[in-house]
């Protein structure tokens, strides 16, 4: 074999060796670090520590209706007619069931009206055991007296709800008659104007007068809520 032939043979042998070993060397390097083995088209991981899951809404029962949310704000009629036929006693029992079913993930408050407005808390409260107990003390102390001054009480209830940063709030207004101080038209305008956040206003009507039913239906419809007449 002459020198040229020998040189060509040796060159071929070297090239063959390199083509065989280079992929092995690259594979070994790829396996040396865990990050290099991760496919680039797969997610890099789960949510960060700063991303917390939102609390799931809960469901409460009130006069046979079910309401789902994470903030519940009541506006309750305590006018003189609520003293007839045990209506106020039934209301207190319904409130006891609803408030006791709240969890600490939710916020709430209670407002009541007769001739004037009475408020349990002017700011949203976390539904701890202690707060639920104090709210029920407020409800149990209500007495039936006066007219049906729903307008100012409804506005204050909406304002309290507006202060809550919960995302699934519900306002519940209960009455046994149409408002008369001020009247239905002004009351509807007052409450709807205050509700700039568009929180659902659910109405529960426990009276027998058609004018009261018509007003409560209109109030719920104007504020994206539901109407119930148990």
Summarize the structure.
The protein has helices at 3-32, 34-37, 87-100, 129-140, 150-163, 184-194, 210-222, and strands spanning 58-62, 65-69, 71-77, 107-113, 117-119, 125-126, 169-175, 201-205, 227-228. It is an alpha/beta fold and 230 residues long. The chain starts with a helix and ends with a strand.
List key phrases describing it:
single chain, 230 residues, Rossmann fold, two-stranded antiparallel sheet, 7 helices, 9 strands, 19% strand, globular
Structural description of this entry:
- There is one protein chain.
- The strands form two sheets. Strands 3, 4, 5, 6, 7, 8 and 9 form a seven-stranded mixed beta sheet that branches.
- Helices cover 43% and strands 19% of the residues.
- The protein has seven helices and nine strands.
- The model is unreliable at 1-53 (pLDDT under 50).
- It is an alpha/beta fold and 230 residues long.
CATH hierarchy: architecture: 3-Layer(aba) Sandwich
Name of the level-1 CATH class: Alpha Beta
Whole-number mean pLDDT: 84
Which structural category do the helix and sheet elements fall into?
A: alpha/beta
**Distance N to C terminus:** 110 Å
Any chance you could write out the topology, listing elements then pairs?
Blueprint lengths: L2 H30 L1 H4 L20 E5 L2 E5 L1 E7 L9 H14 L6 E7 L3 E3 L5 E2 L2 H12 L9 H14 L5 E7 L8 H11 L6 E5 L4 H13 L4 E2 L2
Parallel strand pairs: 3-4, 3-7, 7-8, 8-9
Antiparallel strand pairs: 1-2, 4-5, 4-6
Helix pairs in contact: 3-4, 5-6, 6-7
């Amino acid at each position: 074999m002459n020198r040229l032939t020998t040189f060509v043979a040796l060159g071929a042998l070297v090239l063959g060796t390199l083509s065989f070993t280079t992929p092995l060397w690259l594979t070994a390097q790829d396996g040396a670090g865990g990050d290099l083995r991760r496919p680039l088209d797969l997610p890099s991981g789960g949510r960060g520590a700063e991303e917390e899951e939102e609390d799931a809404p809960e469901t409460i029962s009130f006069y046979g209706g079910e309401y789902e949310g994470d903030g519940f704000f009541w506006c309750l009629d305590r006018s003189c007619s609520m003293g007839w036929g045990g209506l106020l006693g039934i209301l207190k029992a319904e409130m006891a069931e609803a408030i006791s079913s709240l969890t600490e993930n939710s916020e709430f408050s209670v407002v009541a009206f007769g001739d004037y407005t009475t408020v349990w808390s002017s700011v949203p409260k976390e539904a701890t055991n202690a707060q639920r107990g104090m709210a029920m003390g407020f409800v149990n102390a209500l007495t039936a007296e006066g007219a049906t001054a729903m307008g100012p009480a409804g506005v204050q209830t909406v304002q309290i709800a507006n202060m809550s940063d919960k995302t699934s709030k519900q306002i519940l207004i209960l009455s046994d008659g149409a408002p008369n101080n001020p009247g239905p038209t002004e009351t509807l305008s007052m409450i709807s104007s205050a509700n700039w956040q568009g929180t659902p206003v659910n109405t529960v009507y426990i009276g027998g007068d058609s004018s009261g039913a018509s007003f409560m239906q209109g109030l719920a419809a104007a504020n994206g809520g539901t109407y119930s007449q148990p």
